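INFO batch 0412 | record 1 of 1 | parsing
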Amino acid sequence: MSSKKINITMPQENLRVLNEFCSTEKINKSLLIREATVQYIANFNELKEIEKKNLDMKTASEMMERLREKSPGFAGKKSGAEVIREIRDSR
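INFO prediction complete | emitting tokens
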């Protein structure tokens, strides 16, 4: 993998902490920044995927609720759980 040199700007305090950490842990700043960038992007993408799944579940739940409101329900005003129990118990 080829590398390209870049310049970045960061607050002085962040740079101090970065330098101190790299010195203490005997790690190269470039390596740390590369690894941190990869990890940050992976976490960001995972969070976006979780948010999408949550939105999809919320949408599905709202659709089921609208269907439930339109449905006359089960015979004898039984709940879905009661109907399932009857079916299960009859086996």
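INFO post-check: Residues 14 and 75 are 67 Å apart (CA to CA).
INFO record closed
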